[in-house]
Predict the structure.
Amino acid sequence: MVNRKMKDVPLTERPYEKCLKNGAESLSDAELLAVMLRTGCEGLSVSELSMNIVKMCEKMKGLKSLSQMQIPDFMKIKGIGKVKAVQLKCITEFAKRLWRSEKDLNLKVCHPSQISEYYMEELRNEETESAFVVFLNGKNRFLGDYCLSKGTVNASLVSTREIFRKALQQKAVYIMLVHNHPSGDPTPSKEDIYITYKVMKAGKLMDIPLLDHVIIGDGTYVSLKENGCFERSNYSG
């Protein structure tokens, strides 16, 4: 298989030259992608391949659909092999981390809506459940987070030992739990409530209080603290 490289594209169509002359902001989505992919495949230039990927996204949920795709999903696209699938996955992961790092700097959590906004775009379209513990300092400023589980969120997978080991490493004063419901409905399940009590009880013993458990839906959220779950002294099942 012979790859068609960027040098095979006419000079006037090369995004490298456009970027140097007019800046990266002048490039289209497909052109930005072409710069990062660097080469095309047999029968497709890198520009054509990138355009096909962008057109595919337009038929789905826009460019953000790329962030939900896994390596096997990318490999279903004509012209995308294992190497380019890894490239695309790494590009989307880097973009996600860049977006989050900018928000990390000034995030102070005074209301569950703030933590919901922080995680909403990352979790609202996920097809599987993901659970995070969020670490805060004494002024409720964001210190970082840790992914507790992906795929299924239940009490057997959420380890209080791991939560508080990480909290101590981060020198956290408070913690919060966050997870998503792929159905889009953030209504808490009995399992969600049980996990909340389990972590809340351990937090009291460790003197690292659980401030809230926020469940992310599609454009909406539920705070278990606002729902009154924290006011009940015992879990009845």
